[in-house]
Amino acid sequence: MLTMKDIVREGDPVLRNMAEEVELPPTEEEIATLHEMLTFLKNSQDEEIAEKYELRAGVGLAAPQIGLPKRMIAVHFQDFDEKEYSYGLFNPKIISHSVAKTYLTGGEGCLSVDREVPGYVPRYNKITVKATDLNKNEVKLKLKGYAAIVFQHEIDHLNGVMFYDHISQEDPFLIPDNTVACD
Length: 183
Ligand SMILES: OCN(O)CCCc1ccccc1
Ligand code: NI
Fold this sequence. Notes:
There is one protein chain. The mean pLDDT is 98. The protein is built from 3 helices and 8 strands, in the order ααβββββββαβ. It is α+β, with helices and mostly antiparallel strands. The structure holds [hydroxy(3-phenylpropyl)amino]methanol (SB7) and nickel (II) ion. The site of nickel (II) ion has 5 residues, from helix 3.
């Protein structure tokens, strides 16, 4: 099972490189790895397992974070309306997005970042994502608010982008035009 020792921390170049498209259909090994990433998230949100294996809770994970430069992400969370999202996705792509942006008032964190980085992370409030799921089906997901934030955080990892790249250097708590808090 994946544990925190498998999570690459900032400073490793894999987190700053562009990840490669996965050739479809994915291999059995790629499918197994994506299942492991999803299982890590579920374990990290299970009080007993997380305590036993000292897992930091995570709502998403991107393959570069386990040192694999491939365009694969896993997400497992409930949004504020308690809608559940649990996906392993190959080659996720944002095919459209709103002009309007949103952010979490508590900022963001990252399993690959062992420090607090204060500041607002402005992200598109609505996005449409196309991807291939673990059953090899093409999915098109219309996401808004918290779900849109999580997916953008993960897809950023596939492009070598860290959440703090979006925080204003001049004023970390600057709220850009067209930007409304998500929580
Ligand atoms: O890349 C996954 N990750 O490092 C875990 C935390 C993900 C995450 C945290 C705050 C807001 C959106 C997404
Ligand atoms: Ni992250």
